Structure formats: C-alpha cells, structure tokens
Amino acid sequence: MTDATSQLLEAGSLMGLGMAFVFAFLSLVILAVKILSRFAAEAAPVPATAASAAIATQQGLSSQQLAAISAAIAQYKKNKKI
C-alpha cells in the first residue's frame, strides 16, 4: 500500500508542477503579446485611404471625381461583402 501511495503522491506533485509551468509559460506569452501589440500599434502604417486620397489629388482628380470613385468602391465592397 505504501508503494502505491508514494507513487500517487509523486504523480500528484508532478502534475501540479507541470500545471504550474504551463500556467507560467502561458502567462509570459500573454504578457509578451500585449507588449508587442502596443509596439505594433505605435508603428502602424498610414491607412490606404489617406494615402490614396493624397495621390489622387496630386494626379489632378477633382474632389467630386474622388468622391464618386470612393462611393463606387464602397458600394462594390458592400455588395461583395468584402
């Protein structure tokens, strides 16, 4: 009986130790992801709409033409559910 009891105690301690290591590792992963997401948010690129609007005005498109193109793209995306 002592042999089985000691094996059960050893198995329980190994299980507890394994669960503690998994918990610590996952906590570190969550912390790393949160820190990296803050850095990524700061280094986010300029949205394509602002960049394309600046390029379109430089190419000689009027604001009405740009609005019509933007509305057409929005309607296309709405119909295609992109």
TrEMBL record:
It is found in: Cell membrane. The chain crosses the membrane at residues 12-33. Its EC number is 7.2.4.2. It is a single-pass membrane protein. Its cofactor is Na(+). Its main location: membrane. Keywords: Cell membrane, Ion transport, Membrane, Sodium, Sodium transport, Translocase, Transmembrane, Transmembrane helix, Transport. It catalyses: oxaloacetate + 2 Na(+)(in) + H(+) = pyruvate + 2 Na(+)(out) + CO2. InterPro entries: Na_pump_deCOase, OadG. Pfam families: OAD_gamma. Coiled coil: none annotated. The keyword Transport applies. Heterotrimer of an alpha, a beta and a gamma subunit. Belongs to the OadG family. Catalyzes the decarboxylation of oxaloacetate coupled to Na(+) translocation. HAMAP family: OadG. This is Probable oxaloacetate decarboxylase gamma chain. It comes from Zobellella aerophila.
